[in-house]
Amino acid sequence: MQTAPVTPPMDELRRIFREAGLSFTHQRMVLYRAVFAMRSHPSPEAIYDRVRNEIPSISLGTVYKNIRAFMDAGLVREVSPHHGSLRLESNLDEHHHLVCTRCKTIVDLEESDLEPVRLKRQLPGGFRVDRYSVEFRGLCAACAERSNHSD
Amino acid sequence: MQTAPVTPPMDELRRIFREAGLSFTHQRMVLYRAVFAMRSHPSPEAIYDRVRNEIPSISLGTVYKNIRAFMDAGLVREVSPHHGSLRLESNLDEHHHLVCTRCKTIVDLEESDLEPVRLKRQLPGGFRVDRYSVEFRGLCAACAERSNHSD
DNA sequence: CTATTAAACGAGAATAGTTCTCCAAAAGTC
DNA sequence: GACTTTTGGAGAACTATTCTCGTTTAATAG
Lengths: 151, 151
Ligand SMILES: [Mn+2]
Ligand SMILES: [Mn+2]
Ligand SMILES: [Zn+2]
Ligand SMILES: [Zn+2]
What we know:
2 copies of one chain form a homodimer. Chain A is built from 5 helices and 5 strands, in the order ααααβββββα. By secondary structure, chain A is of the alpha+beta class. The first copy, chain A, has 2 domains: about 10-85, Winged helix-like DNA-binding domain superfamily/Winged helix DNA-binding domain (Arc Repressor Mutant, subunit A, Orthogonal Bundle), CATH 1.10.10.10; about 95-115 and about 130-150, Dna Ligase, domain 1, CATH 3.30.1490. The longest helix of chain A has 13 residues, at about 60-70. The radius of gyration of chain A is 19 Å and the shape is globular. The interface between A and B is large, with 71 and 72 residues. The structure holds manganese (II) ion (MN) (2 copies) and zinc ion (ZN) (2 copies).
């Protein structure tokens, strides 16, 4: 199970936004609550659909702008660093990935470089696993270098 | 290291395409060779750029059509099942994912449900890891069910 | 090798996801 | 409450991808 999706009270939200450097608006508050109430890794469209129940006049542009504001503030993340464009995998062997979050480079890591992943308990609710892989996110040597310089 | 990216000879390619139910065209052959020569998980645009050296008149549409043909035939895969649309992560705790490749549902798996992932060797070339997560791909209970029926 | 049929190509229109621009409205500040 | 800054809404613009259609190329049969 997961930490319960508790909706923070108004003044707690004010504090969260203040600390994030975001002014407090009605739309932003409703969006924030929606995103944290949906534990389903929602798309902007899905958030829009839900929030329109509460604010029918909200625009999709506002949803996108606030998602970006939340991401920039580190309040949420994106599930995959590779939304946006298709990336092809021609290595059909079991293997893992090193992903540079800055330049989006993806480098293979052989299956045999890792101890096998072991589950402590059964997977929930009859999920049928085809394959798994481990994704290491960070900075490649080149980007780490550039990052040190511009400190 | 990895299996060397050997370019298969012409008649080998003919066989591969035949077995995949794909007719043999010049564009398709050059595209196939490009994709398997690039171990960098290329985007369609990157493949296009490379292939235009050899076939300047090739169209981006042809690149997309053949990528899809290769994917449908199981010759290549896509790196992420979530290109296409942004998906938000509001759970900032370390955790892992169960991803249904059919309905794209993403379910969290707590960090503590897994034995810690251990590397056998050092990571290559100074990659700086921020975090890692394991992605289990397969079919959720609902989709597995539907899949059994329509057999 | 040629005729016939089926599949693929190139060009460009269409669509989906996302960002940008601009002005009016709301929030933050004193 | 007046002034300044940020945000929201509407729609244009942009990027990634798919679709449509007429022409070309490949597969198949004679
Ligand atoms: Mn790979
Ligand atoms: Mn998650
Ligand atoms: Zn990098
Ligand atoms: Zn599913």
